[in-house]
Amino acid sequence: MDCETHFNDITTRTQGRFVVSIPLKASPKILGESLGLAKSRFKSLEQKFSKEYQFSRMYKNFILEYEKLNHMQTIGEVSEVNLEEAYYLPHHGILRMHSATTKLRTVFDASARSTSGVSFNELQLKGPVIQDYLVSILLRFRQYKYVVTADIEKMYRLVLVSKDQHKMQIILWRDNENKALSVCELSTVTYGTTSAPFLAIRCLVELGKLCEREFPIISNIILHDFYVDDLLTGFDDIHIAKESCLKLCEVLGSGCFPLRKWRSNFPDIMHDLKEGKLADSSEGLVIGEDDVAKTLGISWMSKTDKLIFHIDVEMKGECLSRGSYPSSLNNSNIWWQGPYWLQESPDLWPKDNKTSIPLPEIKTTLVAVSEFKFPFERFSNLNRLRRCMAFILRFIKNCSSNKENRSFGVFTTTELDNSLKLLVKLSQISSFNKEYNDLKAVNEIDKKSKLLSLNPFMDTSGILRVGGRLQNSNFQFNKKHPMILSSKHHFTKLFFEQEHKNLLHAEPLQLLYNIRETYWPVAARNLARSIVHKCIQCYRLKPKSVQPIMGNLPSGRFLSGFPFQITDTDYAGPFHVLNKRGRGSKIMKGYVCLFICLATKSIHLEFVSSLSTEDFLLALKRFISRRGKPSQIYSDHGTNFIGANRNLKALYDFLTQNECLISDSMNNQGIRWNFNPVQAPHFGGLWEAGVKAMKYHLKRVSGKSNFTVEEFTTLLCQIEAILNSRPLCPLSTNPLDPSPLTPAHFIIGRPLTSILEPVMILEKESRLSRYQKIENARQHFWTRWYKEYISELQQRSKWKTNHGELAEGILVLIKDDKLPPLNWKLGRVTKLFRGSINISRVSEILTNNGTVIRDFSKLCPLP
Is the pTM of this model over 0.90? Predict the structure, then answer.
């Protein structure tokens, strides 16, 4: 049974606290007697008590606290207790005066062998590593704007051990040499046992898993931002930071894991935390202080927001004997915890022991652990990735150098170049692992490899380069043998993005050309296009709006009745007219107000002298007087129309509220006004086409001449007649077919006060009166309208498919015809309005200045 299965099967909880069972790989029966060694070690400890008063006082306070917290229970004196299959833990103390809280660390030595030669630790399963490596946590920690650290107080001791295993965690204790030795059993996970890290961390991970669905941010912090009991996390939003810290306290509190020593580079984050959770007077956190050797003594100073490494290396003099190592490094290799370790090269040291020479530079190499992948995906910026790697390399170099040779301050060009080369190498190992290993081992690659055409080789730094055919050229080495990159690797993507910016947003071909001067990205044309396409700066200069499929025609287009029953209206202009003939005339602006029937495309043109609500209402009254009152009017979102709508509503309210004073026929004849979305002219395609057709004739007749108002009005009437004589459907080539159906067929002869008439088409013409014959002709026009015209509306002339799409939550550029593209506002889609065929064409956008509603044609989703 492995540790994970054992934990899932045995672990329980009592009042929120986890109760675990120590995972054993063998029976405790193989343990021999351990009481004698425990007695001997305790007597040595008491001798130290007698010599060091402060140490003695701190140690006794620690044991007293252990007992008060019920983490330990006394079961009797040594002479009275007889336990089978028990294990007595020797214990000793380590003073750490640099620690901000725990100056004394008591170590329980579960590795001490019993008389059978087996220790308690050898019985235990160690368990897998279930937290991120420290280097990953550190690199991620440095990416955030607001960072927070804390640690769990007494983490191991917050997890209970099942009662039947207490006898395997026995210690001896007395606070006075004159007393008898007492036998005490430890009831919590004990520091110093093999399984302790896994059991404590696994309980923490369990809390993270339990809250994953309800609190995903907190779950991610617990699962990925803890190194043992140390929390190193960060946020880019101050409000999320505050809320997450409070919620994290709550979630961990449910498992009885209190957080302490809170620190942040932004003090405001600490204000909302409960009293007692705040940091003490110290400003730093020692990361992984329970195991300094593994974590290299890394400290973070919150006030200066810097990582500090405490390296205790003493160098006596400048010279060493040949063949010897510095005493501080000898027999204690410096290890980089996690993905890499520092490997020293002893062969570089001189072998003649008779002569002293200056301390040589220790050559170091990074050896990747096979099961670890460098977290490239954690970075969104090449410069930041490059600096992080330079930071790691400098740190390793400083570990192996004396004080005079250590580097501090700003990174040098050499350090940054070395870090870039190492990143290239790591990306090659990740992308071309088989080719890399083949070249390293036998200096050739498989014949089926996709790199075969490049004739790759490995240089002295272990980097794959193109062999190619340019060896005899005079080009530089990097040009002849560029470093190989995979276009699918995240590092290559970051590199392309950086070069695109360095080249002032070059086009794809130029971007690829410049990169190939030093690097050879495999199959990178698509990547170059993708980088340019997704560049926000480039996109803002050439944004692409969303264009849904052409919508279905509104029901008003198929409503048979009198012309202008449902009307669209729009303005065109300005046009210049003369206020009078002869001398002293002045040029004034004028506009054309267009009314168009939604069903028959009949057009009515009115001259308007200004863009005021009053002038529009006068034009509307003239239109109604000659064409009849429409039931609905559609228009753009112009301010003059908005004002008109308010006036019409007041007029309609007046009419309906005073129905006793007007005839019954006027009761329900109010005009309903409909506005299209703001800045969406294509929603009124019918009237936009009418305006275009009107301007076509007007420009050709007027030229550069200026007409008087009367002349201009007469010209509009003539254009109106021409437009109303256009065929509604294609002409037939058969000479026997009737004249084409036009809007004029539906206008001529219709009284403004007509009432609905019975159907006359089925009646014989000889039986009809003259009036009925006229009505029969009108109805005949509508029959042709159904048969000839409506069928022509079936096809979509453009926007035949959807181009692009929008979804709630995405960022968009909002087109503004009055501003250049770089100044267009950014907004976030908060709501989509779906039409009758379940296709969205209008959305609600949240901007810095509030919420606006825009048609899709004005929105450009960011890549």
Answer: no
